[in-house]
Amino acid sequence: MDIGPFDAKETILEGSDGKVYHSQQLRTLTPYRATFGYDVIVHVGLSLFMHCRSEQTIIEDLAHNNIVISQREIGFLGKKFIAYLAIAHEQSRHRLKRVMASRGGYVLHLDGTCEKDSPHLFTGMDGIAQIVLDNIKLPSEKAERLIPFFRKIKRQYGDPVALVHDMGRGILSAVKTVFPGIPDFICHFHFLRDIGKDLFETEYATIRNRLKKHRIRSLLRQRLKALKKEMGNDQTAFDCLLVSIDRNVPPVVAKLAPMAAYAMIHWVFDQSELKGYGFPFDCPHLVFYRKLVVLHEMVNAQFGVSKAFSGLWRPLTKIIEDPQLKRAASQMDKKVKVFNKLRSVLAIADPKSNKGLNDDGDQIDIKSIEEEVKKFREEIISEDAYRKNDDY
User: Fold this and answer.
1) Which residues are CB-neighbours of 51 under 8 A, at least 6 positions away?
2) pLDDT of residue 248
3) 337/301 Cα distance (integer angstroms)
4) Torsion of Cα atoms, 297 then 298 then 304 then 307, to 10°
5) Angle between helices 307-320 and 284-302 (to 10 degrees)
6) Cα–Cα distance, 347 to 349 (Å, whole number)
7) Looking at the predicted structure, is the pLDDT value of residue 139 above 80?
8) How confident is the model at residue 249, as a pLDDT?
């Protein structure tokens, strides 16, 4: 990248023993018989995987350095970058081991992730140094598939000081087999997630399925398209709407009704209040249902002013009068309050935090957390409404 394209003239030496000697300097610039240097490969890899840049943008960047490259070659160099990175990581394991030993050892965090039916990407990470030790693609998180992976980590880095993971049966069984006697901890986040699912996953599934049955999302999207055409681009009317909202005056003027309805539906679909933790911490279907209830109240207040509102009244009324939806939402609201209290007590994934998965939780010592959890549990046990309900 410093000089652009160049022709290299290499003198190859052969010793009396028949051993061939290549130019080491040339080998530090570019892989053997490769067209692009290591620095170009690194630039492409970081651009793709760290900065999420498009292939076309990378081509334009490299053009400024007098490097002409095709889109297909960008994709190939991206794969090459991953391969070289894996090799470099493997060759660095002795240095990594020394670094971790100097810190008093390592805490092995274990977790996997997947999307729907895709393979699981399972990772082992040192929680102290924040170094990924190894990862592997697996069809499932069964113990017989995890045991060889755990044994490889143990062979390369020795026994960890402790382990942290979720409550998956496969992980629990594999850890017991490979790391017997090592202090074993459950991650608070995963612990909370499993409790939340046990507590109100049934009600949440009911809300999701009933909303799907009513086809309310597709109906509202169709209404948005129709309203957009009806609104046109009347800036004056739009300014009036903003003024009325600013003064907390309901926009009842017929001309503003389509804009008001359009804004209301957009508000229903907006889920910026979610924290990014995923279910059960975030409950997008419940949030959506609650907003539909508010939208129904708004439509009732504006009913008769314009067909923009009357067109929304019937489908929303069906939602509001659905007994299964109403009962599931009511039960879930109560359970979510209890769950949020436990989140605060455990000092992780706090409902008031805006950091999402980047939130490390409050730096409270484990003994204080233990005492708060005991108080929370006593409170649950002491109240009949909770004690007589198996869910709690």
Assistant:
1) none
2) 57
3) 30
4) -120
5) 130
6) 7
7) yes
8) 58
Q: Degrees (nearest 5) of the Cα angle 90, 92, 98?
A: 130
Q: Which residues of 123-157 are buried (b: 16+ CB within 10 A; e: fewer)?
A: bbbbbbeeeebbebebeebbbebbbebbeebbeeb
Closest CA to 316 of 330, 332, 303: 303
At residue 162, the 3 state secondary structure works out as strand
CA-CA distance, 85 to 92, in Å (whole number)? 10
Enter the DSSP assignment of 118. S
DSSP E strands, the chain: 13-14, 20-21, 107-113, 120-126, 131-138, 162-165, 184-186
Distances (CA, A) of 203 to 4, 184, 194, 291, 340: 62, 33, 15, 17, 16
Residue closest to 134 by CA, chosen among 184, 169, 191, 92? 92
Determine contact, residues 164/127, Cβ cutoff 8 Å.
yes
ω before 280 within 30° of 0 (cis)? yes
Quickly tell me which residue has 């209890």 as its tokens.
338
**Residue 347 region by backbone torsions, left for phi larger than 0, else alpha for psi between -120 and 50, else beta:** left
313-326 pLDDT, tens digit per residue, is 888 899 999 999 99
Q: Which amino acid is at 108?
A: L
Instruction: Show the tokens assigned to 211.
Output: 């909303």
Long-range contacts of 150-153 (CB under 8 A, 24+ apart): 150/110, 150/124, 150/174, 150/175, 150/177, 150/178, 150/179, 151/178, 153/108, 153/124
Q: Within 10 A of 355 (CB to CB), how many other CB atoms are there?
A: 13
Burial class (CB in 10 A: 0-12, 13-18, 19+), 196: buried
Q: pLDDT tens digits, residue range 142-183? A: 999 999 999 999 999 999 999 999 988 999 999 999 999 999
